[in-house]
What we know:
Layout: E1 3-11, H1 16-27, E2 32-38, E3 43-49, H2 55-64, E4 68-69, H3 74-112, H4 121-138, H5 140-151, H6 157-177, H7 184-219, E5 226-230, E6 236-240, E7 249-252, E8 261-266, E9 269-272, H8 274-277, E10 283-285, E11 290-291, E12 296-297, E13 302-308, H9 314-328, H10 335-360, H11 371-385, H12 388-407, E14 410-412, H13 415-420, E15 426-429, H14 431-435, E16 436-447, H15 452-463, H16 469-480, E17 490-494, E18 498-503, E19 506-512, H17 513-518, H18 527-535, E20 539-545, E21 548-559, H19 563-572, E22 576-580, H20 585-595, E23 599-601, H21 606-618, E24 623-627, H22 633-638, E25 641-645, H23 650-654, E26 658-660, H24 667-700, H25 707-731, H26 747-757
Parallel strand pairs: 15-22, 15-24, 22-23, 24-25, 25-26
Antiparallel strand pairs: 1-3, 1-4, 2-3, 5-6, 5-7, 7-13, 8-11, 8-13, 9-10, 9-12, 14-26, 16-21, 17-18, 18-19, 19-20, 20-21
Helix pairs in contact: 3-4, 3-7, 4-6, 4-7, 5-6, 6-7, 6-10, 6-11, 7-12, 10-11, 11-24, 11-25, 12-24, 12-25, 15-16, 24-25
Amino acid sequence: xxxxxxxxxxxxMSCSFCAESIKKAYSRTDGVEDVDVSLAHEEVLVExxxxxxxxxxxxxxxxDLGYTIRDPDKAKRYExxxxxxxxxxxxxxxxxxxSIVVAALMGWMILVMGRFESSSLVMDLVTLGxxxxxxxxxxxYIKEKAYQxxxxxxxxxxxxLEAGAFAxxxxxxxxxxxxxxxxxxxFFAVSVFITTYxxxxxxxxxxxxxxxxxxxxGLLDLQPDTARRVSDDGDVEExxxxxxxxxxxxxxxxxxxxxVDGEVVEGESTVDESVATGESIPEEKTGGxxxxxxxxxxxxxxxxxxxxxGEDAFLNQIAREIEEARAMKPGIIQLADRxxxxxxxxxxxxxxxxxxxxxxxxxxxxxxxxxQRGAFAALAxxxxxxxxxxxxxxxxxxxxxxxxxxxxxxxxRSGDAFQIFPDVDHIVLDKTGTITVGEPAVSEVVxxxxxxxDVLTTAASAExxxxxxxxxxxxxxxxEQGGEYADPDAFDSVTGKGxxxxxxSDDVLVGKTGWLSDEGIDLSxxxxxxxxLQGRGLTVAGVVRDGDLIGLICIGDxxxxxxxxxxxxxxxxxITPMMLTGDNERTAQAVAEEVGIDRVMADVLPDEKREEIGxxxxxxxxxxxxxxxxxxxxxxxxxxxxIAIGAGTDIAIESADIVLMGDRLGGVMxxxxxxxxxxxxxxxxxxxxFAFNGIGVAAATTGLVHPVFAMLAMVLSVSAVLANxxxxxxxxxxxxxxxFALDERTDDNVSDGRAAAD
Length: 758
């Protein structure tokens, strides 16, 4: 017994106020030691003493607050998100319909009947029914949240909303049964309208978050969770990976992900371990070599003996690193929260004092208590103080910026990204798959006594039957050069070294320079060229024909076309670029020099990447991390903003705040520009909303603001925020894209995203 960690995927969170309410609720629960809430990933991580609390009690706290705990299974979680979206739409349609009917009744009363305040009993009863139906039907869930928050001493937007809604209901009832002069319909209308606007605000946020999640879901290729276990008798059984024990043997076919950490018992293959090490050139694996779970077996079948399971396995270590990074990630205080922390209790206090003033103060000058004016004042304060526009300021900026980003192939998953990006002063980049393409390609051919095409076609003929990934690079380069080559007459592959073949009666060797020397080939004259090329981090293969070295083929990970330009844009924006990679120092320095990065850390493990970002944060820097591999996931989570390359791994995408469709690196600075612009819009929206709220509350305390005018002022504030968010975009002809409808990771997406950005 002792400390336990529980992580939940939570539905129903719509804004940072929700995250703060969850934190406060757990902080006031005996036995809870620490809690972290990630609004971007809709997750709650709770650390508690299991001697004092059970898992059920921990979950019940979330459920009591009105939030749902989603199924850990991705497919079921997706279905739950769809159901939440459908429920939100249904609530909005019901509440919106009630609001339209109430507005029509008020318009009929004013325009046709020529009366502003007095109404018929039938009209009063109809609006009462609509108010009750909206508050206790569509808006019932808000009351449950408000009650549970208030019970824990938490004053949030739900509490303020219900104070205004019940004040309107009470005012209408007083007008219906006690004070005939009260504008009954208008009081009931306030209850309907503010409940509807709150539902609209939450649905706005919900649709953004759900569709962003759906877009991410479309990117994720669910990895198989089973493995082929081979018994001592040779029988093969497909079992869950979690059921494997140390010493078990599993069969992995070419093209499959290696499911476990282990040691090769039988077979030879090349294995792409870039997701773990950052090295883009595949490793040769044979008996006795170790392999890492999550790597890709490329060429041959392997029989692997399991050497690590459970918490000791690489993928589980990465998962633990992500969990720790998420828990230790610096908290982000939303701009609105800095004021709303005091705003909600302040509005409630002012409303109460306003009512008391107009009831008690008249006694001082010998007049009777003015209950109606006090009721007007209290209700108007609550209505004008309700932060509907405040609640919509950030989601609307997210919609605007998110739509603009989606048009450029960028998925902004988190509102935090908009707020933090303008303050980012360091961008940390992985190398493989981020700055580079992530696939080996021929970058240079050096010919000796032959031309480059001859060197390539000779090598291509020799490698035609090879399954090695570097052979594919040579064949592709020969095709691009237009060279013609035929299948070899004889072929033999020397594992981990190269190939020997007979090509048009010529004896040809293609392989590592060390192997060629062992085969008796004199490379002394070319040693300077070999050292120069290897110094650039390239893999050098020699091509020998009939005993003579006719050329060197240099294979490396090609740098992306827009990498150097993106680094320049970072520097121009006052941001320091930095490379963290698991690749070797020589290769990392060569790539960094070519693109213009001064600060480089190589041979870095996943936990070391996260620690380095943590050090930068402790020094007061705002850090964005860009990566694409499993080994990048902890760092992506730790960073203030995690940016995943959409052509990368599932776990990297899930750990990120921003996803770049395809593999274009320039999207990083496009996202920075959009985030900066959107945050400016957010501040403008908040300033507009606070101006309406502040001036409105002050005017409302006089008791001279009619409830319906207060409601109109609230509508006007929301309209002003809407206009500020989208007017310029609509006038410029950009349109408003809220769908985030992005296709799967294909080459077409890469080109489409690049074209949109251009």
